[in-house]
């Protein structure tokens, strides 16, 4: 296997030098073996807190949060989350009535957060989703709401009358950034470490697509691309989602769908860029080889996906269909980095 590592000067990857704080609130209605309500908090795409309506307790998910915040903090946040749970029970019922959904499994989700670059620039996003589709989104630049469907127009008018946009703008530009800085300071040794990815080309059998698998890297910003005969290649490429590993690092895949004949006649390479370094991989690992079995890798990926579904269902349910889309980005938030959502 040939792996080439190059140091690229002047390369600035997406997310490099960026810290982020995001929250995903999810209410679920229907016959499903899953908590009725969950909150997942992420710093730099890694989970740092969790709450669900079964345990009714906010808990830290990183060692640096356990060390920096005591029981009083988590008790206070538990009280806030418990009240938010009740609001979401109302909101999902309101949404179901507007969409005329009386049966089946449905989700109501609140997603928001902020980002801070090394140069001091900031971004914020704030949106609501229902059943994996956009419901209503804030444009904090114009302080306006975009209703994605007729059912959300009522909410748009209601929140405009309550000046909710102004409150959210203040939260995203001030409170959220302040808490992000605080959390980054808490977890500086962990959040600002740099770990290069391990890169492998995986293929189940000669007729299967070829998957470029980058894993074990930190921070999360990574770019995976393909080259064909030395030129950038974008056709028949499926880029996978960023997924967390159990040790706090990340993994991501990019799959190239080419025929065995195309692979033999051309020189394909996977190019992975991370923190100013590039790894190039062009030799495939298969089940017939003496290296790690792709069956084990795929099994591990499935296990990770299952863990995300268990620990951050709202994030996955929405992102699979729509994505957490930044908007041109309220509440005092004086004792918490989280934010309440008004009734729909």
From TrEMBL:
The keyword Glycoprotein applies. GO terms for biological process: immune response. GO terms for cellular component: external side of plasma membrane; extracellular space. Residues 325-344 are annotated as: Disordered. Residues 331-344 have a biased composition (Polar residues). Residues 1-16 form the signal peptide. It holds the Pfam family MHC_I. PROSITE patterns: IG_LIKE, IG_MHC. It comes from the Eukaryota. Keywords: Glycoprotein, Immunoglobulin domain, Membrane, Signal, Transmembrane, Transmembrane helix. Residues 197-287 form the Ig-like domain. The chain crosses the membrane at residues 294-318. Belongs to the MHC class I family. This is MHC class I antigen. It comes from Megalobrama amblycephala (Chinese blunt snout bream).
């Amino acid at each position: 296997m040939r792996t080439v590592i190059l140091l690229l000067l002047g390369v600035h990857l997406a997310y490099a030098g960026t810290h982020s704080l995001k929250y995903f609130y999810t209410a679920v209605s229907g016959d499903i073996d899953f908590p009725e309500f969950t909150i997942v908090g992420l710093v730099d795409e890694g989970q740092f807190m969790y709450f669900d309506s079964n345990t009714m307790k906010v808990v830290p998910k990183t060692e640096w949060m356990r060390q920096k915040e005591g029981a009083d903090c988590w008790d206070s946040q538990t009280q806030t989350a418990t009240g938010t749970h009740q609001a979401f029970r109302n909101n999902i019922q309101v949404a179901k009535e507007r969409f005329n959904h009386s049966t089946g499994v449905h989700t109501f989700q609140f997603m928001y957060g902020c980002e801070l670059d090394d140069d001091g620039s900031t971004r914020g996003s704030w949106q609501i989703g229902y059943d994996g589709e956009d419901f209503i989104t804030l444009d904090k630049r114009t302080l306006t709401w975009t209703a994605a469907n007729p059912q959300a127009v009522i909410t748009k008018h209601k929140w405009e009358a309550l000046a909710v946009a102004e409150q959210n703008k203040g939260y995203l530009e001030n409170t959220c950034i302040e808490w992000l800085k605080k959390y980054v300071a808490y977890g500086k040794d962990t959040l600002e470490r740099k770990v290069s990815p391990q890169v492998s080309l995986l293929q189940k059998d000669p007729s299967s697509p070829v998957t470029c698998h980058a894993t074990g890297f930190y921070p999360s910003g990574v770019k995976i691309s393909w080259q064909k005969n030395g030129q950038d290649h974008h056709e028949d490429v499926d880029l996978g989602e960023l997924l967390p590993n159990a040790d706090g690092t990340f993994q991501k895949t990019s799959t190239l769908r080419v025929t065995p004949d195309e692979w033999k006649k051309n020189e394909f390479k996977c190019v992975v860029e991370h923190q100013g370094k590039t790894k190039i991989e062009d030799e495939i690992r298969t089940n017939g080889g003496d290296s790690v079995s792709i069956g084990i890798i795929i099994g591990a990926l499935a296990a990770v996906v299952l863990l995300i579904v268990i620990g951050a269902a709202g994030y996955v349910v929405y992102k699979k269909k729509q994505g957490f889309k930044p908007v041109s980005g309220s509440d005092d938030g004086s004792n918490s980095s989280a934010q309440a959502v008004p009734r729909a």
